[in-house]
Every structure is written in structure tokens, then in C-alpha cells.
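Now for my pick.
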Amino acid sequence: MSNNFFSGLFGKKKKPADDPPPSAVDARAADGSQKAPEDAADANPAREMQHHQEQEPPPPEAPASAAAFDAVTETAPEAKKNWFSRLTHGLSKSSDKLTDGVSSIFNKRRLNDETLEELHDLLITADLGVAAAERITDALAQDKFDKEISDEEIYAALAGEVAETLAPLEKPLTIDREKKPHIILMIGVNGAGKTTTIGKLAQKYKDDGLNVMLAAGDTFRAAAIEQLGVWGARTGAPVIARDVGADAAGVAFDAVKEAQSGGKDVLIIDTAGRLQNKTVLMEELAKVVRVIKKLDETAPHDVVLVLDATVGQNAVSQAQAFSEIAGVTGIVMTKLDGTARGGVLVAIADKFALPIHYVGVGESVDDLQPFNAEGFARALAGISE
């Protein structure tokens, strides 16, 4: 295989629809000369460790094929708005579904059994889940039953209940600078925006002055390796990668070893998301964690699940499956700007009580922001700042 791993790969593979498109610019791959322990090594000689020399950063002249990627990483005009305005705009489809439904139900009608039942059904169809729907309608019934009630009062009750549910889960993804490196294992199904999220986090950490390394642990898909290489090149973060089909645990082992020897502050490891075969995925993730612990018994320090809001209640089942498989420590919810199902974050919070680190409401780096429960609740209810 050519020493120029990523350039050879970029010339042959197509990009996935949900990640930024590849460029012809080579990603930097750190040298993976240290062999993995027997537990992580691939027994197949055809899959022995590939050694990649560190590439030079991309030249200033980016090729035309990188244009769309640049549109993602550069701050678009929309990103210049304050975060609450962008969040409100991003959640507009979700809030419109709720506010339009509320206006239809309570048009000159009192709060009675019939309207409460209609509101309950509306909240469920908006993906907030049964538990949240019952809490909201119960609270309204206690104070306003058989009385006239305005749409604004409904929105305020909705926002208040959502904020109360989510506030205990508002938790930054904090990097422990005493760890060298702080290791983040990223998990989630293919198509959830996992690789894009890794790239955005890498950019944020680089902007904070941290030394970041990435590991292409989703060796099942060539496109995942390719896209992580693009993000590595653009953020200046070296990438540890191997051939498609290589042992993911071996990649993780090499990445941890290299990050330790290089004094990196953060190591973000991508993983496969083949949830249709839970047994294989469970074994693979368990092996990855096992070899990481051989080098740092406290790691991984975070296991972050990336969920796509556009899939609605399927995100709940994904959270269930990955919680069973990998011991999730926190979540990132992406693509809230492309769906009317943003309420599913409330259903997930009710069911799993997992810390929420970030939400994404757009493609630019600035559109992935630390989660704020009150802001999210107000935006979901259509309440302006």
C-alpha cells in the first residue's frame, strides 16, 4: 500500500451524504509503529498494522472538491447570530409543530378533559414521550382545569416542564488537562453525524489551545476513515488510521500509545455503528475499551453517544441499545435544525437521564454548542428571548 494512505483512499471512495465531502488534500496520519498487544492485534496477517508517516499540513490552495467542506468549517452569516437566536431558528420546525397544534386545540375552548386529551396526544406526536406529556397536562389541569387558558400559558407550562426535566442533565464535556491524553470514545449509528461531530469538537478544542489527535476506529467504512482524514487535515489534528477491515482495537491501541508519547491533550476515537448486528458491535467496542485500559486504566474518560434528532423515537431505541453495549456517559444530539422531532431529547432524558453535552442546529462549527436546558426549552416552546 502507498505510504500516502489518505490520498490513495480519497481517489477511490465516495463520500457519505451526512458528512462533509472529502478533498484531495491529504490528512496527516501519525506514525503507528507500536504494535498492539495480542488482545488487540489482528490475527489475520493481511491485516497487520500499516505504518503511516506524518503528512505535511494541506497547502494554502485548497482544491475545488474541498469547497463544500470549507462551507462547513467557516463561520456562515447565520452563525453570527447569538446562540439562542440560532437555536430558536434551528428548532423552528419542532416548535411550529407544537404551537400550531396548541392554537388549533385551544381556539376559544376551555381546558377540559377533551382538550387535555388532545394536548396529551399532541405532545406525544411531537416526540416528547408519554411521561413528559402526562406531567405537562397534569400540571395544567391542577391550576387551570375548566378555565379559559391562553396559548402563551400552554407554551410557558411546556417550557417550564421541559427545562425542569433537562436542567439536571446539562453537563459540559470538560477536558481534564491532567490526563495526557483525555480520551473520548465516540459511538453512534452510521449516519448520525458522528464523524462530523468529532471534527467540530476537534476544532473547538484546538481553538481552546489543546493538542488534539483523532483515531479512525470505524474501520468498517472507507468513507468514515476518509472523512476523519479530511477533518484532521483541516483542524491540524494528526489522525491514526489503518486499512478498511483492520482491527479497530489495534487502531485504538496505536492511537493511545502515540497520543501518550506525543503529550496530546485530547484523543477522540471514532467507532463503527453497525447496530443491526449488536453482538458483533458489542464485542468490538468491548475489545476497544479493553485495550485502551491496558494503557490507561482510567480510560476512556468519556463515552459519548451521537444521536440524530431526525429519526425521532428511533433515537430512543438507539440510546437503549448503546447504553447496554458501551456504558454511555453522555450524549450529543445533532440535526435539530432539520426536523420537527426535536422533542425526542425530552423523551431520551426521561428514559435514560444521560448527561447532555452538546446540541447541533446547523452545519458550521459554531452551530454545535454546549447544551443549555432553559434555552432549549424556550426555543422548543416557541418562546422568544
Residues 1-38, 40-80 have pLDDT under 50 and may be disordered. The chain has 14 helices and eight strands. The longest strand covers residues 302-308.
